[in-house]
Amino acid sequence: MARGKDARVTVILECTNCVRGGVTKESTGISRYITEKNRHNTPGQLELKKFCPYCYKQTIHGEIKK
């Protein structure tokens, strides 16, 4: 039987390039992905390289608070 909090949590990844650069007329929004991470294996914030359709390239997507 599991004790305490669940190990797997749902996190939201947001494009750091869109957030830093600001939303311009060329980019109509901010790219976000929803994924899961294991809290015990990765206690820090998760950063993955994902494709951003607004930047038209692969950028680093960082974990944000819900």
Q: What's the quick description here?
A:
This protein has a single domain, classed as Ribosomal protein L33 (Rubrerythrin, domain 2).
Q: What features would you describe in this structure?
A:
It is found in: Plastid, Chloroplast. Pfam families: Ribosomal_L33 (PF00471). Belongs to the bacterial ribosomal protein bL33 family. This is Large ribosomal subunit protein bL33c. The protein has 66 residues and is mainly beta. It has a single domain, classed as Rubrerythrin, domain 2. It has one helix and four strands, in the order βαβββ. It has one helix at 16-21; strands at residues 8-15, 32-38, 47-52, 57-64. The chain is elongated and about 45 Å long.
The sequence of SSEs as H and E is EHEEE
Proportion of residues in helical segments: under 10%
What is the topology, as strand order, of the major beta sheet?
A: 2-1-4-3
Class by helix and strand content?
A: mainly beta
Strand percentage:
35-45%
Question: Quick check: average pLDDT?
Answer: 84
Low-confidence stretches: none
CATH class designation: Mainly Beta
Query: Per CATH, which architecture?
Result: Single Sheet
Distance between the termini: 28 Å
Radius of gyration: 14 Å
Topology, pairings included?
Layout: E1 8-15, H1 16-21, E2 32-38, E3 47-52, E4 57-64
Antiparallel strand pairs: 1-2, 1-4, 3-4
Organism: Oenothera argillicola (Appalachian evening primrose)
GO molecular function: structural constituent of ribosome
Subcellular location: Plastid, Chloroplast
